[in-house]
Amino acid sequence: MSVDKLKQAVLGMVTVSLLLASGAVFAGLGDMPLNLTQGVTETSQRVYDLHMTILYIVTVIGVIVFSVMCWSIFHHRKSKGAVAAQFHHSTAAEIAWTIIPIIILVAMAVPATKTLIFMEQTGDAEMTLKVTGYQWKWKYDYMDEGVTVWSALDQDSNNARQRDSGISPDSVENYLLDVDNPIVLPINTKIRILTTAADVIHAWWVPALGWKRDAIPGFINDNWTNIKEPGVYRGQCAELCGKDHGFMPIVVHAVSQEEYVAWIDEQKAAQLAAASGANREWSKEELLSQGEKVYAANCASCHQATGNGVDGLFPALNGSSIVNGPASDMIHLILNGKNLMPAFKEQLNDADLAAVITHERNSWDNTAKDIVQPADVKAAR
Q1: Using alpha carbons only, what angle is made at residue 361 by residues 358 and 365, rounded to the nearest 5 degrees?
Q2: How far apart are CA 26 and CA 335, in angstroms?
Q3: CB 138 within 8 Å of CB 132
Q4: Of 14, 140, 292, 310, whose CA is between 20 and 30 Å from 116?
Q5: Distances from the Cα of 340 to the Cα of 1, 58, 199, angstroms
Q6: Spatial contact of 227 and 40, defined as CB atoms under 8 Å apart
Q7: Which pLDDT score is estimated for 24?
Q8: Are strands 183-186 and 249-255 parallel, antiparallel or unpaired?
Q9: Is 244 within 8 Å of 203 (Cβ atoms)?
């Protein structure tokens, strides 16, 4: 086989492979949109409109430039006897290719600047939500209501993503995109959202709202939203924040003002119940039952459901000298954290801390077998 025929054969195989691959990609896309989503806020709509405006402009530029290139290549080809012109300077051409791009850039900069200014207008907000990123969960403070909500990966997703869980992710609805406690926001309300972090840099991102904000320790960034349509809107942390970066989703339930007020009342009642629960004596059975839930939601991702940890990263709780030692030392460690372990004194109330400590000291091969009451944790604070 000649070299030319070999080249043609190879080119043919490459072309067929690319066509097959392209077909597979588009078949896999199915009904997935290929453009930006328009979202459910005025901000997201303005961002979408700006995106489309710029897309139209660059598309027209691309069509014109490539049309001229193709026409020039075809009509000035060597086989037609074309001879290249010999010149090195054209004042008119230089002025044209300087002025025209400036005009195009200004035409794009004006609407872009207007959109950016609009996005930064956080005044006249009707309520304020403070978002704090933790490794690896979100804390939401409703500043005007005195309500705090902790939101972490839902238990079904958390169980399925554990090593050797034997659970297929396909069996979990909204795998890695659902939480135990979604936040609720009212529609048709201007909401100022403050973002910060307690440990490392996170980023709070819900695509349907049309923006993303970094959550940086020691700083507070702000933005605002006004959701126009009720529904469930999902997002994720969009900053590499450590081992479980991919496991701290965001779920926003947008509801009517009446539903929002009712939900706030429920949260206030739940907080009062939790406070009263921390002021009573718990039975061992109550502590073990509650502790198992708290452990699964807050500890299993690092120490594993078996309590055996991860070699070189997270120590085993099964047989640990801390878990089997004095309860006061364990309480102090969990309250204040150490190394990669975060401090839980702000994340969990006294009852939940007492429950999870009791669960760990009575589980697996641990021999302590005692109980810790909420009053013990309260005293240690």
Answers
A1: 145
A2: 51
A3: yes
A4: 140
A5: 64, 48, 10
A6: yes
A7: 42
A8: parallel
A9: no
C-alpha to C-alpha distances, 79 to 67, 72, 265, 378, nearest whole angstrom: 20, 13, 82, 90
**Same domain flag for 282 and 270:** no
- Could you tell me the CATH number of the domain that includes residue 110? 1.10.287.90
Q: How many domains does the chain have?
A: 3
Q: Is residue 147 within 8 Å of 155, Cβ to Cβ? A: no
Same domain, yes or no: 67 and 96: yes
Q: What is the pLDDT of residue 153?
A: 93
Same domain? 184 vs 47: no
State yes or no: cis peptide before 136, omega within 30 of 0: yes
At 120 the three-state DSSP class reads coil
For residue 10, being part of any structural domain is answered with no
Judgement on whether residues 197 and 287 belong to the same structural domain of the protein:
no
Shared domain for 113 and 137, answered yes or no, is no
Torsion of CA 147, 153, 157, 162, to 10 degrees: -140
Does residue 9 fall inside a structural domain?
Answer: no
Instruction: Check which CATH number belongs to the domain holding 205 and give it.
Output: 2.60.40.420
Domain, as residue range, for 169: 127-275
Q: Are 226 and 191 in contact (CB under 8 A)?
A: yes
Do 74 and 202 fall into the same domain? no
Q: Which residue has the tokens 């328009």?
A: 38
State the residue for tokens 């936040």. Answer: 183
Walk along the chain (381 residues) in steps of 10 and give the mean pLDDT of each run: 51 50 46 77 94 93 93 86 80 90 93 94 94 94 94 90 86 94 96 95 95 94 95 95 91 97 94 81 92 88 85 87 92 87 86 92 91 90 81
Hey, what are 259's tokens? 């539903």
Residues 108-143: pLDDT tens digits? Answer: 999 999 999 999 999 899 999 999 999 889 999 999
Read off the amino acid at residue 366: N
Query: Same structural domain for residues 299 and 321?
Result: yes
Beta bridge partners of 250: 235
231 touches 239 (CB < 8 A): no
**By the 8 A CB rule, do 226 and 41 touch?**
yes
pLDDT at residue 77, rounded to an integer: 84
User: In sequence order, what are the beta bridge partners of 196?
Assistant: 132
